[in-house]
Amino acid sequence: MTQKQLPEQTLRSLSPELLRRYLDAQGWYLAEEQQRAEVWATQLADGLMDVLLPKDPRLTDYVRQLRYLFDNLAIVEDRESSAILRDIRLVQTDVHYVRLLPEGLAPGTVWLSEGSRAVASLRDLFVSATYRATTWLENHQPRPVEPGRKPNQVYEFLSRRVLLGLAQPGSYILTAEIPLNVGVPEQLPLDAQGRYGGIPLARRVSTAFYDGAAAAHSAAEHAALNAGDLSSFAEHAEHGLSANVCEALAELSSHGKVPFELRAAWANNLPVDRPLGILQFPPGLIEQLQLGAEYLRDRFGRQGVSVRGFVTKMERVPTTGPGSVILLGRPEDEPASRAMRVHVELTAPDYERVGRAHLEGQEVLVQGDLERAGNRWHLVRVQSCTVEEITD
Q1: Which of 7, 65, 198, 360 has the most crowded CB, counting CB atoms within 10 A?
Q2: pLDDT tier at 389 (50, 70, 90 boundaries)?
Q3: In degrees, to the nearest 5, what angle opens at C-alpha 334 toward C-alphas 129 and 122?
């Protein structure tokens, strides 16, 4: 790769602290301190790599040493030094890179069908990440099988806070940018353990995006190395992994046709507390992701499902208190599916509300977890129950 020389004035404006944060965020570590420079190192597949970081911008050879540093980073990251410089200067923005690796095509190109599918899948991954971040915000546990309809705040965040950047040289690279500096700071409250205090919601979404992909990668790698053992998917589900993430990653690759890599560059004004490397998804891992998604859906069922329909039967003993009803309807995210009878246990207030809806011929919308027992469908762990009038 032929590197263009970086401008002297731009390099001289970079502080050692800014460069130090970037190296740390990319998994490098301080290996040795010298009088005029620091030695930073990282472990590569073919051995240890080290670079020099000059300590003082006033040194006469500061620019020359930085050029040598950027040349080495460009080799390690396999991209142009100008792209690395851009990352370093994005002080208040997290950037996520998706590098598609289609075979037999010129660098910087991808088939239109596969490129458009990758963009749609990238959006799906951010929908999932925003859902998980806002679910944690409300002190609830995200679901291994996410609801088809997410809260409005998920889509509002995506429409206002996630930017699709320019494609970059090097195979075909998509970029998603999440600025952390907003007019009104969005802060997560402290929970009982004092976690998440002072962290912008944008960063929570950003880390949820990367952590979800990393968990899926780890589970798929475990399955590939252990004769298809999918148990790791369930273990990671306890920490936020979902079938939706696995499906979106598989779709991003056009179901194994296009290998890809994910990498994050974190805003320098809010460094991460752990190294986060490049995630590589070859076809073998994509196959395990598809199997893992099916495994999670089979194991955890359909959670957070909204069923819309009409009441066909009501029963409670005694005649006050909680009761059970049967809805004839269908999941709201599958409006063309065949109508089904769903048994639902309701609290006393919800039972009274549904009873009035039944008498007045109104539709009922109930959200919960859809499970099958024998030939019966049950909506359990009901989260909400609303009544809607029929409109012409």
Answers
A1: 65
A2: low
A3: 25
Rounded CA-CA distance 197/255 in Å is 39
**Structure-token match 């990653």, residue found:** 249
What's the pLDDT at 388? Answer: 78
Tell me the pLDDT band of 319, cut-offs 50, 70 and 90.
confident
Please identify which residue in the block is written with the tokens 């190294």.
275
Burial of 136-170, coded b for 16+ CB within 10 Å and e otherwise, reads bbeeeebbbbbbeebeeebeebbeebbeeeebbeb
Residue 248 host element (H or E): helix 243-252
Q: Residues 210, 96: contact at Cβ < 8 Å?
A: yes
Q: Which amino acid is at 106?
A: A
The total of other beta-carbon atoms located within 10 Å of residue 40's CB is 22
Reference 169, options 107, 259, 260, 119; nearest CA is 107
pTM over 0.85: no
By DSSP bridging, strand 47-54 and strand 163-164 are unpaired
pLDDT value at residue 247 = 96
Sheet with 47-54: strands ordered across: 29-33, 37-44, 47-54
First to last CA, the chain: 64
Q: Distance (Å, rounded) from C-alpha 30 to C-alpha 50?
A: 9
Q: Indicate the residue type of 314.
A: M
Buried/exposed 4-17: b ≥16 CB within 10 Å, e otherwise = eebeeeebeebebe
Distance CA 216, CA 129 (A): 13
Summarised one tens digit per residue, pLDDT across range 224-246 is: 999 999 999 999 987 779 999 99
In three-state secondary structure terms, 110 is coil
Token representation of residue 156:
């509002």
Integer angstrom CA distances of residue 274 from 28, 147, 268: 11, 31, 14
